[in-house]
Amino acid sequence: MKQFACFGLDTANQCLRRGGVPIEMAPKPFAVLRYLVENPGRLITHDELLDALWPETYVQPQVLRTYMLELRKVLGDDAGQPRFIQTLPKRGYRFVATVTERNGIASGSEADTSISSTGTGEIVGRDAELAQLQANLRQLESAQRRVVFVTGEAGIGKTALVDALCRQIDPSIAASVARGQCVQGVGGVEEYYPVTEALNQLCAGRDGEQAHRILIRRPPAWLAPGRAETDASAAARPSAQERMLGHLCEALEEIAAETPLILVFEDLHWADDCTLNLISALARRRAQARLMVLATYCPLSGDNKDTLNRLKQDLLLRRLCVEMELAPLKKTAVSELLRRELGQAELPEGLADFVYLRSEGNPLFVTAVVEHLMAQSFLVRNGAGQWEQRAPFEEMGAGVPDQLARMIEMEIGRLSEDEQHMLEAASLMRVAFPAWAVAAALQMDPVETEEACDALARRLHFVVRAGQDELPDGSRSAFYVLAHGLYREVLYQRQSEARRAGRHIRIAERLGELFVGREAGVARERAMHYEAAGDPGRAAGVLNAAAIEALQTGVC
Fold first, then answer.
1. Residues 379-402 pLDDT 10s
2. pLDDT score recorded for residue 317
3. CA gap 108, 246 in Å, rounded
4. Are 54 and 99 in contact (CB under 8 A)?
5. Does residue 58 register a pLDDT over 70?
6. CA-wise closest residue to 32 among 67, 73, 72, 82
7. What's the CATH number for 2-113?
8. CB of 293 closer than 8 Å to CB of 227
9. 433-480 pLDDT, tens digit each
C-alpha cells in the first residue's frame, strides 16, 4: 500500500482508498495514477506514460489530459496549485506529493531528499485536539449528533488531524466515513458537489447497499453517481434546484440510526450555498442520529467566507456546533516533527531553532523548509547516513521554498491590486509596520491607510494589529505585524527594485519629517531605508550627521 496525504493506493486490490474507504475508478485512470505514484518526484513525459500503459499501440496524447482531469477530480486537486499532480506544459507530469509505503519508508526519485510528514501514520503536537475530536465521536454512542469545524490557516494540519481521527476509529463500532472535497471554482457552478462525492463513497463502502436502498426511496436526484438507474428514473431526475433538502437529511439520519456515520467536508470555504444549507439543517434537526459532520476550512479564505463564518457563529451561539482552531505547533513539537521527518533522534545543532523561526510552527512550512534545505545541499547525509548541516544558518535563511512561494503568491493574488500594494509597502519594514509608513510609501492619506490596514488585519491570518504608537507631533498611528516572515520575503521580492527604492526613500524622508529636531534618534532606521534603496551616500550622510550631533551634545 502506497500512502500519500489521506489516500492509499491499494495495488493488490487495484483501488484507491481515502481514509480507508475505497473509491471506484476505471482501470486506465487507476493505471495512470499508479504509474505516477510509483515514480514520485520526477518528470514523466507524455511519451513515457503512453509507452508504459499502451505499449505498441498508438494513442492520442489528448487521452492523457482526459485522465488527468478525472484524477484531479477524484483527488480534489487543483492544476493551478497542485498538491498531487503537477503539469509541466508540453513536457509531461510530475507527482509532487510525498509517497510512503505502509511501513513508513519514504519513496521518491531522490531517496536522500525525500521526507514524509505521514510516515508513521501519526501526527505531532495535536494530542489535545485529537482527544477533543474523539470525545465528540464518543457522543454518537448516545445518538447525539455532532457538528465540528476544524479551522486554521493553510498548512496548519487540519486534514492531517481528520485523517488521524479516521485511522483511530475503533473497528468494533463499524462507523462509516464518507468524505467530500470542496474545490475552488466549482461551488459557483455545481451545487452539492462535495455532498455528491460523499454519497458516492458512502454507496461504494462496506454498507453501501443499505445506504443505496435508503437513498433510492428519496427523489432520484440523491442517488449516488455511478449507480445503475432505469431510463425512467434518469429521465425523471429533477434539477439541483428541485432537490428537497429535507429528504437528504431524513436519508442520512436513517443511515445513521444504528451505525455511526461521519461526513467529512474538506476546504468548506470553497463550498456552495446548498452544501452550507445542508450542514445548517443537519445541525438544527432534533431527531436522534449517530451522525457527525466534520468540516475543515480556512476562516479568511474562499468565496463564501462571510456566509460560512455567519453560519458557524450562529451555530456556536445556539451550541449546535464545536469549533477547533488549530494553533501553530510549539517548538518542542517542531523538534519532534523534525526527528520523524529526518528519521534520526539527534538533530544537527541549531536546526530545530532555525526551522521553528522560519516556519513559525506551521507544519507545512516545516516540511517545505526542510525539503528546501535538502535541495540546496544545506542538509546532507554523512557517511553514517545521518543528516548534518553543511552551511551557516545565515546562508540557509536565504530564499523562500518554491512550494511555499507559489502558495503565498496564490493567496496574495486573490486580493485587490490596492491591497497587494499595501502589503508590499508593509514588507519594507523589518518587523512591525506602522500605518504611517505604508501611507508614506504609497503616498496615501494616513487615516484612510490605517482603516485599510485594519480591514486587512480582520481578513488575513498573516496580518495582525499589534498596538498604537504616539508620534512626536502628538498624533497616533496603529502598527501591525506580518505574522509570517516568509510572507514578508515573498511580498518584498515581488516588487521591482525601482519600486522598492522609491518606497524606501519616501519612508526615510517621512521619518525625517516626523522626527525633525530629533533626527539622531531615527538615524539608523533612516540609513537602513536609504541603503535598501541603493543610496549608500545618503545613508552615510544620515549616520554622519547623527554622529556629529552626538559629539556636540556629549552623547556618545
1. 888 888 888 888 777 677 667 888
2. 94
3. 48
4. no
5. no
6. 67
7. 1.10.10.10
8. no
9. 999 999 999 999 999 999 999 999 888 888 888 888 888 888 888 989
Of 505, 494, 461, 534, nearest in space to 151 by CA = 461
* Topology agreement, domain 127-227+244-325 and domain 413-553: no
Assigned C-alpha cell, 20? 480507508
Alpha helix stretches (DSSP H) within 344-433: 351-359, 363-375, 393-396, 402-413, 417-426
Closest CA to 187 of 246, 265, 275, 248: 275
CATH of domain 127-227+244-325: 3.40.50.300
CATH number, domain 413-553: 1.10.10
DSSP state of 344: -
Domain boundaries, the chain: 2-113, 127-227+244-325, 331-403, 413-553
Convert the pLDDT of each residue in 168-179 to its tens digit: 887 767 788 999
From first CA to last CA, the distance across the chain in angstroms is 69
Q: 451 φ, ψ to 5°?
A: -65, -40
The per-residue pLDDT of the chain, averaged, comes to 83
CA–CA distances in Å: residue 471 to residues 40, 249, 433, 513:
56, 59, 14, 11
- Residue that the C-alpha cell 462507523 belongs to: 175
Task: For residue 70, name the pLDDT band (cuts at 50, 70, 90).
Answer: confident
Q: 469 with 479: CB under 8 angstroms?
A: yes
Edge-to-edge strands, sheet with 261-266: 176-181, 261-266, 291-297, 146-151, 322-325
Give the pLDDT score at 295: 96
Among 435, 431, 430, 425, which Cα is nearest to 471's? 435
pLDDT at 404: 83
Could you give the CA distance from residue 32 to residue 120 in angstroms, rounded to a whole number? 27
Distance CA 419, CA 412 (A): 9
**Neighbouring-strand partners of residue 86:** 94
Looking from the CA of 154 toward its CB, the CA atoms found within 13 Å total: 19
3-state secondary structure 35-97: HHHCCCCCCEEHHHHHHHHCCCCCCCCHHHHHHHHHHHHHHCCCCCCCCCEEEECCCEEEECC
C-alpha cell recorded at residue 392: 551557516
pLDDT at 445 (0 to 100): 94
Taking a C-beta distance cutoff of 8 angstroms, is the pair 199, 215 a contact? yes
Q: What is the DSSP letter of 239?
A: P
Mark 178-197 as b/e (b = at least 16 C-beta within 10 Å): bbbbbbbebbeeebbbbbbb
Q: What is the pLDDT of residues 150-164, one digit of tens each?
A: 999 888 999 999 999
pLDDT of residue 225: 47
Q: Which three cell numbers stand for residue 462?
A: 498573516
